[in-house]
């Protein structure tokens, strides 16, 4: 255990794909299974269920999980940039530095 409620998992890459393991642990089935709700959100990875698949299947699933994580990160970054742009444009309109385009020519 790395700290209070922090676990370090070091899977043997010849036996289990690390991206596969991470994806399975983040999956809704395991979240329902090993999450306890009280006054705080806690996860007990020792209760997680990880399917035993051949390593090649794990690697294929792991790559899909990795790509989904990258996609989710890109979506978060896009949302952050959109919020920043909205703040800048709102500020520009409010202080008179920007004017809306006239419609109807």
UniProtKB/TrEMBL annotation:
Superkingdom, natural source: Bacteria
Gene3D superfamilies the record matches: DNA methylase specificity domains
InterPro entries for the chain: Restrct_endonuc_typeI_TRD_sf
Keywords: DNA-binding, Restriction system
Name of the protein: Type I restriction modification DNA specificity domain-containing protein
Annotated source species: Actinomadura alba
């Amino acid at each position: 255990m790395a700290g209070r409620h922090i676990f370090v998992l070091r899977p043997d890459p010849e036996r289990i794909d690390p991206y596969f393991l991470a994806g399975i642990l983040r999956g809704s089935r395991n979240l329902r299974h090993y999450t306890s709700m009280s006054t705080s959100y806690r996860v007990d990875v020792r209760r997680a269920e990880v399917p035993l698949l051949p390593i090649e299947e794990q690697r294929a699933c792991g790559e899909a999980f990795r790509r989904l994580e990258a996609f989710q990160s890109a979506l978060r970054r896009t949302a952050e940039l959109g919020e920043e742009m909205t703040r800048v444009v709102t500020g520009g309109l409010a202080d008179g530095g920007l004017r809306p385009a006239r419609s109807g020519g």
